[in-house]
Amino acid sequence: VVACYAYEYDIDKTIRLIKRLYPKINHLAFISDNTYNGLIQWALVNDYMQVSPELKATMIDGRKLSLDQAVDTLKNIPPNTAILVGIWRIDNNNMAYINNSVYAFTHVAPLAPAFSLTSSSIGYWSIGGYVPLYDDLVGRVGKKAHEILHSGHPAEPEFYVLPMHYLFDHDKLEELKVDLNELPEKSDFLNR
To answer: How far is CA 161 from the centre of its chain?
Structure first.
């Protein structure tokens, strides 16, 4: 192995952000799919929920649900629920969805604010979240590939954890009348 590029999700910062913007939230609907990444996200959120008994959860789990079942589950969430979007690309029937799964979820719980764990859905559904900064990854991978192919000597192993940042959809913030002064300093914006 000559390179590893990874990211770490910070569930605590994301949940604190949700509670800061929506202090009445007492329930979380978490959406994750039937992929390895979805399973990791589910495990992290599940572990977090075990130590946060003040927050109840509906786990919309793609290992157990089809997209239609997941949408029906989201329709029935209780009041004062925030949605946390992990990823949804593969359901329990191994049906693959690219971005159209987010559109299926978008309109079924219009009063529940949606946040992202991964940046998935920011820009058209989710308000934002504390997410990995993917911008630099392509350049890093390209430089490493060039080093491996053209340096003439063994490549130095590289382990890189992507930095995290607060990313928000400016249009969604305006639509939901979220006060920008309530956001963390040095936040980044889409659609501004």
So the answer is: 17
Element at 112 (helix H, strand E): none
| Residue with token string 């159209």 | 100
Rounded to an integer, the average pLDDT of 45-55 is 90
Cα–Cα separations (whole angstroms), residue 69 to 74, 92, 105: 9, 10, 11
The conformation of residue 78, written as its DSSP 8-state character, comes to P
Provide the β-strand partners of residue 161: 6
7: buried, middle or exposed (CB in 10 Å: 19+, 13-18, 0-12)? middle
3-state secondary structure 18-72: HHHHCCCCCEEEEEECCCHHHHHHHHHHHHHHHCCCCCEEEEEECCCCCHHHHHH
At residue 130, the pLDDT reads 96
Counting every residue written for the chain, the total comes to 192
| Share of the chain residues as helix, strand and coil, in percent rounded to the nearest 5 | 35, 25, 40
Number of H helices, E strands in the chain: 6, 9
The pLDDT > 90 percentage for the chain reads: 49
Element (H, E) at 168: strand 164-169
Cα Rg for the chain, rounded, in angstroms?
18
Largest CA distance in the chain: 61
